[in-house]
């Protein structure tokens, strides 16, 4: 690995001249620039990114903030890995890199992000796990750091965003159940205080109301967003005086435990309880096959990166027609469960 000092010594010219040649400065003789570039390639020159970042005030890094949670299923890792791949496929076009910023469950996410921002760790941020009211938006806007959330919030500082079509999922699922004769329809509350839960539940209620139906509080089931949570919720469903005959859920992992739990309490998925959920790689092993909503996570990641860069002056010209705010569609995959 060769640094700029070794490159300058090899060519017997000053470090300043080598630096100006590598950075395309116009005051460098064309022949000198050619010699520097050829030697850099031959010797495997690697730029000192930390030093360049200090000089330019830029890191070349986009941070993706996630909150870790021991209760979240391992499928969450698969979800974000696919999104990351899409993000990096775009960043690579501009010689940018993606770094995950993992906020532990033991720390306040606002405090964590404030610390990362203070360290100047990244030029731009992608946020996940957006909350109903999210102070992170205000923090980043105040510090003038470009960002895009995967998800909406009532906090709005004019930033771009992309969110999954939870309204469409709720409406299609409710209409499908009602058309199939269901009147007692329940939901499984998405994890925590994330804004998607309120969006989803509100749309379920609104769609049910159009059919003169309601969503009673005891038909909103809650549990950890993992297989164990689904297993426990199955018993809560069975314990209802009049169990719902249909369930809609957003979390991909809960359905695995839900299937097993329902079977053990004598309620057959797809027969005694119709189920519509989100697709996951594990869902293809379920019987009866899960009726679910699917999307390309890699394409979602690419769209996040393009929308973020399109909001930044240095890259705006590359994405002149980018849509600033988008609801990302999901496709209904027909199954036998509902």
Could you explain the architecture of this structure?
By secondary structure, the chain is of the alpha/beta class. It folds into three domains: about 5-45, lambda repressor-like DNA-binding domains (434 Repressor (Amino-terminal Domain)), CATH 1.10.260.40; about 60-165 and about 295-335, Rossmann fold; about 165-295, Rossmann fold. About 40% of the residues lie in helices and about 15% in strands. It is built from twelve helices and twelve strands. The strands form three sheets. The chain has a six-stranded mixed sheet. A four-stranded parallel sheet has the order 2-1-3-4, with helices on both faces. Helix 5 (about 75-90) links the parallel strand 1 and strand 2. Helix 8 (about 165-180) runs parallel beside helix 9. The chain is elongated and about 85 Å long. The termini are far apart. Mean pLDDT is about 90; it is low at about 50-55.
Rounded to an integer, what's the Rg over CA atoms?
25 Å
Mean pLDDT: 89
N-to-C span:
59 Å
Largest sheet: 6 strands, mixed
| Helix/sheet category | alpha/beta
SSE series: HHHHEHEHEHEEHEHEHEHEEHEE
**What's the CATH H-level superfamily name of the largest domain?**
Response regulator
In the residues, how many domains can be counted? 3
What sort of overall outline do the alpha carbons produce when their principal axes are compared?
A: elongated
CATH architecture label name of the largest domain: 3-Layer(aba) Sandwich
Which spans have pLDDT < 50 for at least 5 consecutive residues? Answer: 49-57
Proportion of strand residues: 15-25%
CATH class type of the largest domain = Alpha Beta
């Amino acid at each position: 690995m060769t640094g700029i000092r070794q490159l300058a010594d090899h060519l017997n010219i000053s470090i300043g001249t080598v630096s100006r040649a590598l950075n395309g400065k116009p005051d460098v003789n064309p022949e000198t620039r050619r010699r520097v570039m050829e030697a850099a390639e031959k010797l495997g020159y690697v730029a000192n990114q930390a030093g360049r970042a200090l000089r330019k005030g830029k890191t070349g890094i986009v941070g993706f903030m996630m909150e870790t949670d021991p209760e979240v299923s391992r499928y969450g890792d698969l979800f974000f890995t696919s999104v990351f791949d899409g993000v990096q496929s775009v960043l690579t076009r501009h010689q940018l890199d993606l770094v995950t910023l993992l906020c532990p469950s033991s720390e306040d996410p606002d405090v964590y992000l404030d610390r990362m921002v203070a360290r100047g760790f990244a030029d731009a941020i992608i946020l996940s796990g957006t909350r109903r009211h999210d102070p992170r938006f205000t923090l980043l806007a105040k510090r003038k750091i470009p960002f895009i959330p995967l998800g909406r919030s009532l906090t709005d500082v004019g930033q771009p965003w992309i969110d999954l079509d939870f309204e469409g999922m709720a409406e299609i699922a409710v209409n499908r159940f009602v058309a199939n004769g269901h009147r007692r329809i329940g939901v499984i509350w998405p994890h925590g205080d994330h804004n998607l839960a309120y969006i989803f539940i509100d749309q379920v209620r609104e769609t049910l109301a159009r059919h003169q139906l309601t969503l009673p509080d005891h038909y909103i089931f809650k549990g950890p967003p993992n297989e164990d949570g689904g297993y426990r919720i199955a018993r809560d469903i069975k314990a209802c005086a009049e169990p719902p005959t249909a369930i809609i859920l957003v979390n991909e992992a809960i359905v695995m435990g839900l299937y097993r739990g329902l079977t053990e309490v004598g309620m057959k998925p797809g027969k005694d309880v119709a189920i519509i959920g989100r697709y996951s790689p594990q869902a293809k092993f379920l019987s009866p096959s899960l009726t679910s909503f699917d999307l390309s996570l890699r394409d979602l990641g690419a769209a996040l990166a393009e929308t973020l860069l399109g909001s930044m002056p240095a890259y705006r010209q590359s994405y002149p027609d980018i849509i600033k705010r988008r609801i990302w569609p999901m496709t209904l995959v027909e199954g036998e469960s509902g």
